[in-house]
Amino acid sequence: MLISLKNRVALITGASQGLGRAMAHRLAASGADVVMLARRQELLDEVSGEIAKETGQRVKGYSCDVSQIDQLEAVWQQVEKDFGKVDILINNAGSSARHPIDTLSLDKLQTDFDLKVKPALRLAQLASSGMKAQRWGRIINVVNIGAKAPAGGTAPTTMNRASGIAMTKVMSKEFAPHNILVNALCVGQIMSEQWVGYYKKDNPDMSFEDYIAMRGKPIPMGRIGEAEEFANVACFLVSDQASYVTGVAINVDGGFSPVT
User: What does the sequence similarity comment in the record state about its family (predicted)?
Assistant: First the structure.
């Protein structure tokens, strides 16, 4: 199935590395112009330049701490001036934060909420106005499989990611009459730069390659997923081919989650 995103503009947060970078490349390769948001402008410039050169699409990075709503709104205004519209929004910002409940401070809970939930909501509010006017839009909220089946010691991330799934469902109900489709993608164990940190933290007596192979064994498919595999699912969901898919949270985890 050939997916074309020609004449679409996609905005992706957390876009300079990992899943965000893979999604930016995949959407640009399918014909979309791409707006990339992340904190480090120098990395954004490097990555956006590479993607633009490889795909021939317009790709531009904007430095922004999305947890700071005033920054986010200022960048949004600039994006509208530069690109004229946003057809596709992918909320992908946020790293893992894990604490036991009895040591989780309210400040840490709020900080995580400010990074994962507030900017996703605000960007959806900003983007949906133009999407409603043209009667076409796609929104993806990237969460994790722990949002559906949280393990102990995974707060506040799983708590706020569960909020992301609830927010997705509410948005899908309200935006469907305007042909704006909203879905969540639940990340399992996908290869990214974070795995280097996990390897150093665990400090196993084995090579990095053997460590990754070991971590993939409990997954039914027997391996850790690739960021490009995740990006392929996202690309389908933001395309015209996914015209009757909204309000769902799809696991991209090689069958690892105990729930559907």
Answer: Belongs to the short-chain dehydrogenases/reductases (SDR) family.
